[in-house]
Amino acid sequence: IMTECTSLQFVSPFAFEAMQKVDVVRLASLSDPELRLLLPCLVRMALCAPADQSQSWAQDKKLILRLLSGVEAVNSIVALLSVDFHALEQDASKEQQLRHKLGGGSGESILVSQLQHGLTLEFEHSDSPRRLRLVLSELLAIMNKVIVAHCSLEFPDSRDPPTSLPSLLPIVDVAEALLHVRNGAWFLCLLVANVPDSFNEVCRGLIKNGERQDEESLGGRRRTDALRFLCKMNPSQALKVRGMVVEECHLPGLGVALTLDHTKNEACEDGVSDLVCFVSGLLLGTNAKVRTWFGTFIRNGQQRKRETSSSVLWQMRRQLLLELMGILPTVRSTRIVEEADVDMEPNVSVYSGLKEEHVVKASALLRLYCALMGIAGLKPTEEEAEQLLQLMTSRPPATPAGVRFVSLSFCMLLAFSTLVSTPEQEQLMVVWLSWMIKEEAYFESTSGVSASFGEMLLLVAMYFHSNQLSAIIDLVCSTLGMKIVIKPSSLSRMKTIFTQEIFTEQVVTAHAVRVPVTSNLSANITGFLPIHCIYQLLRSRSFTKHKVSIKDWIYRQLCETSTPLHPQLLPLIDVYINSILTPASKSNPEATNQPVTEQEILNIFQGVTGGDNIRLNQRFSITAQLLVLYYILSYEEALLANTKTLAAMQRKPKSYSSSLMDQIPIKFLIRQAQGLQQELGGLHSALLRLLATNYPHLCIVDDWICEEEITGTDALLRRMLLTNNAKNHSPKQLQEAFSAVPVNHTQVMQIIEHLTLLSASELIPYAEVLTSNMSQLLNSGVPRRILQTVNKLWMVLNTVMPRRLWVMTVNALQPSIKFVRQQKYTQNDLMIDPLIVLRCDQRVHRCPPLMDITLHMLNGYLLASKAYLSAHLKETEQDRPSQNNTIGLVGQTDAPEVTREELKNALLAAQDSAAVQILLEICLPTEEEKANGVNPDSLLRNVQSVITTNTPNKGMEEGEDNLLCNLREVQCLICCLLHQMYIADPNIAKLVHFQGYPCELLPLTVAGIPSMHICLDFIPELIAQPELEKQIFAIQLLSHLCIQYALPKSLSVARLAVNVMGTLLTVLTQAKRYAFFMPTLPSLVSFCRAFPPLYEDIMSLLIQIGQVCASDVATQTRDIDPIITRLQQIKEKPSGWSQLCKDSSYKNGSRDTGSMDPDVQLCHCIERTVIEIINMSVSGI
């Protein structure tokens, strides 16, 4: 079409714009041939009555009439406008219906009667009305055929005649019909030019009805050419039409053609052209439908043999190639300069650099060609491949854009290795890669970009050495910013070049160590960094293979870190630890990396372990300190986990000393990390996991709760109350105030109250003074408020320096013995023997604030001891094989391990139970307290008496007297700790109760320890023990549990106990019977109180016991028989004995106690028990 319409004159953009704006002045400047194309519209404007009645339009209309007056063809148009359009429309509508019935055939015509001559002669010999009918008839015939061809035949209903001719001839349908006639594009342009407001409607209609691939058919190409003519006539709308093309995913050739037309019109030499932007947007955009549509256009265009200049794809490729060649530094051959020539002129380079203003455009072109080849499947010609290689191996300036260009070029070489086909081209590539290695340091320093292409080179070399081709493919796709298919087999030649010519493994490792660390490494620095290279080399064990030390580099990089945490740091530390512990090969067990030294670790934490201005003294960031802490904890955990493997290899890497760990403020650092969780990524959670495993005493729940209180809103309010006086108190002033405590309490109170306003880290300098003077607070006369404030300060300090604080506190609370030098315990001593904590000054046991601190430390050291013994067990595991590798032990290698584990568990159980027993002893009143009238179980009984007795006022007074005492508060603190221990490990509760403890404490433990109900599970087992003492203790314990927990389970165990007592009655000797029943008979009262259904069984048991006793005392039958008789009567008629039950002689058991015979005493005890039961029942009723 483009060629057949070249001889015709089209409407110029100038004329079309004048028609759009009805600019009469511009129209007047048109030549007669240009004006003639617009006559239909101009004549209508001049003759038809306008809607605009303004004076200005009247003047313009006169000017239009003046223009038309000189054109002879105007008369013919005027004659056409005089036709009876209503009759014409009716005939046209009838003919349209007729053609619809005939199926689009060319039969009779209503518009035109029988033609006497041919259509052309008839047209020439006819008048204007008949000419109009002839054209209309022919146009309707073409439109009908087009509609039939598109299978969308639609006609207006005959009962609704059209009101105007445009409804009969929609302009979009007319445009479709004109595409099928000769010079149709020219006719279409004239039609739109005379109806300029229909431009967008016509274009959208033609695009919507167009083919998905316009280059595939003649009709598609004609449509594309027609739309190009329309856009040439109205160039301002060309890009909008292109947008319609992409929106509909039709006519891709048109989109490219319009872009080519636009590119030719714009004068853009240095910037990225519109063609590059448009095609890149289609292929690299997020719309997969558009990407597939345009990719199909590229693939189909390549498959056609007709690849001439008329093809839009060919024109696009040619334009891209011209743009590429336009920015090449010089047109140079791939021939490499001979070495002799280079030696002669060393300062002259045949490789001229890429201009700085062309770098961005060159990068855009490279990405576009990558997309065309990788996504759309474009196969480059030899010329395109040659020029692309020339561009890729050019040398840009040292700018951030230059770094980006080199990275893209390198990845494109990896992705499309077929671009390098000849030995000369391969040599050119090798020279360029060598230049990259040589210049990367200069590029990084000059451009200011941390992530340079040098790291990418190293990374790719490492991937090639470890044969991780999929990782290289991922790296290439990530750098190019597109997902393309790269076959691993296509990388074989590049792998050979990298591993054998450019980067041998030894060169890689030696070069990697010399790469400077990234300053202030954080997640904000993106791209490929030295850390990625070191990580891959560590994974492949290259450093250990070639005996290259990497420890110093890793240490320097850890020191140069900041928030937000870079995601590669934790994997780097993990793989570094693995390379320290695990040899690279079994044949060379010494091939490992060196760990970070203890002195280097201490340097990191310098200024954190205490001092006035903690943050000012820190040389390293909190990120570096947390990472080193993560390294130490992970190293120790990995060392224990690999003990067996290391023992088999006869290797024993050194673990870090306990003194080093004592100097690291672990809890302080963890607390700092808690406030930076968002910036530290997964480091905080990883540290918590390691802490819970290796340092459980730093993960006590109470501490976390206390810490929440310290760092919450209340703390913020306290900080607002902070005055200069609080800040001015020095540790020395606090020491002087403590020295004056025996005389003056006010000064100490004032200072420590001010200290409560300080934060935990600001309190660290005062820790030693506070702990060293705790023993002075045990003296009588020290106000309770001072003790409570010291406890509060201690708990705050416990959130930042628990381990150091505990050691200082334990040493400060040792008993002061004259002429005996106090031992200074260490952290290790206390972990080995946690019971040292309880060997404190006895006065602490009656000082609740300090006892609270002691119990906190005891709980922590019991947990620490468990972790210490588990670690010690694993550490000494490697010594076991040498001791047990004897003949005859095959198949029994697990036996020693099981034994050691059992011994460890037995030791821990003994340790925990000893702590519990000591604490229970502390709950007993001392001799002095007993002398003052304190009864161990009076506290509970007095409280119960408030409820059960008829004299509440007296009971309340006694209860208040006993509840407001230090012993009671200490008992509550101990019961809380025991409750936690029982819940954490129910076996401790079982062990302690199998060991037994004073029965005077049973009311306290059952009422004060909520978890005592778990004893119901093992009481049957305890009752079944052969020792009489354990059976007695079990029944006494059960009696209190039944009162506290009247549950169905308690009832069944109580019934079992009654049955056991009945059974023992028949087997025990007289002495044992007395020893068993005397302490257990009062428990039957509790059983009846908790469970009345047991009344009958218990009464029968009591009578049986009495009968057995009576039968054993034949000489005192006269004394015993009345008792048995009374028992029978009481059982049968208990209500009649209610008055007797209230008799004080029965209650107090003063009757018949003169006899010392055990059976007689037992009978009296039975009588008292029965009376108590009946008294309880009657009073209950």
TrEMBL record:
Gene Ontology CC: integrator complex
A Pfam family annotated for this UniProt entry: INTS2
One of the GO biological process terms: snRNA 3'-end processing
Protein keywords: Nucleus
This protein's record includes keyword Nucleus: yes
Keyword Nucleus: yes
Stretches that traverse the bilayer: none
Origin superkingdom: Eukaryota
Primary localization class, coarse: nucleus
Cross-referenced InterPro entries: Int2_metazoa (IPR026236), INTS2 (IPR029321)
Localisation per UniProt entry: Nucleus
Family per similarity comment: Belongs to the Integrator subunit 2 family.
Official protein name in the record: Integrator complex subunit 2
Organism: Colobus angolensis palliatus (Peters' Angolan colobus)
